[in-house]
């Protein structure tokens, strides 16, 4: 990736975008639009359609028609595979365009965005495309006078509701397995980052996905999202976002048609460093990146550093040195290590957490302030607080910003107690040179993923999801694929 190529993409005007319904572009019936503000400089980038309930009805009806028609849902698996592989190739062919468009929309640093958004989405489509014709049904071990067959069938119409931090990557985690399984899909992108998913739908049509199989309704969560949640003809919702909205979706399902709800929610993930950590400098550098990459706007961010007392001072010193090297700046400048905060509201929320931590007596070691205000964009310094007690807000509430809370501990039991001492259970890490301790910690920590001697780093082959209030259901891997089909038994008397 060259700076000149990025600059060329960045200079392209972005035309106002409409809804993508039944294979065509259409404005919201009310003609309402929402401004898209770029977090890079606070300027108005373009507009998106602001869908209302009637638009959601149109999209769901188109998806239902496409599903019932069978052109996709009953297509031979090898045919679905071909289309999804073509889509993966198209995403890759447009990777730079998609990455820059996404960065202009949500502010993620381009190096990360390029890999985590188009390239990862292409990989996800490819992986599920390859799975389509390799997952079999079952023959049950019944008595000799019957034949028990277990078929897998698509659910029908699946709605995917996606957050703004990695809309393509997370969108693909839901759209790819849902389509591969034969469903029709309605996507509700986040209002703060809709542009790449709209482009994805266009590429899917180019790849040969039949009309109505993938629809995109942009707009406000409380309106378009709610309409999907309450819809009587949506069979399942796959959601990634906040716990507050996750609760609403369960309520909508209960009040409507008991649609299935898969929830991937937030976290307050512990990154646990023991005295016997093998390489302090490396662990500190990976830990800094584990919280500060994408300005902490990562669901699995290691936002609580639990560090054993014997190594506390040396580790914190190394961590501050690693943090000082992180360069916050224009996310489309290849020299920047960290980009913008996605919106003015999110920046204000982060600064509020900083003020609360200070008021509660935590010790600010670095950061805590807005940066580059003169750019008009939304930037924040990587922020580290020490002496954060478990009862403080900073230990309990997800910031979803570049704010790290450090708490010291003495024993392994205390580390486990602290690690499990929140309502969440999304991710964790353990740094130790003691293999037995590493395995004990993997068992003891309540989280969907426990990293050992690293932080983050994962791929499509393993499931991602939460324990406790970090949600249920899993993205990625064949476990996620299972979530987009129903089992049907055929019981045949012989
Ligand atoms: P959010 O919950 O505010 O919004 C997520 C999506 O829900 C958006 O598309 C939004 O428009 C929609 N929405 C909002 N109100 C709605 C309603 N009433 N009904 C239906 N839909 C509605 O979350 P966000 O701010 O976009 O994302 C940040 C959150 O997402 C954080 O909590 C983060 O931890 C979580 N997250 C989790 C994962 C994971 O894999 N577990 C990954 C990324 C982000």
From TrEMBL:
InterPro entries named among the record's database cross-references: Ald_DH/histidinol_DH (IPR016161), Ald_DH_C (IPR016163), Ald_DH_CS_CYS (IPR016160), Ald_DH_CS_GLU (IPR029510), Ald_DH_N (IPR016162), Aldehyde_DH_dom (IPR015590)
Aldehyde dehydrogenase domain residues: 25-489
PROSITE patterns listed in its UniProt record: ALDEHYDE_DEHYDR_CYS, ALDEHYDE_DEHYDR_GLU
Active site (UniProt): 264
Alphabetized Pfam families for the sequence: Aldedh
Keywords: Oxidoreductase
PANTHER family reported for this sequence: ALDEHYDE DEHYDROGENASE-RELATED
Family label: Belongs to the aldehyde dehydrogenase family.
Name listed for the protein in its UniProt record: Aldehyde dehydrogenase
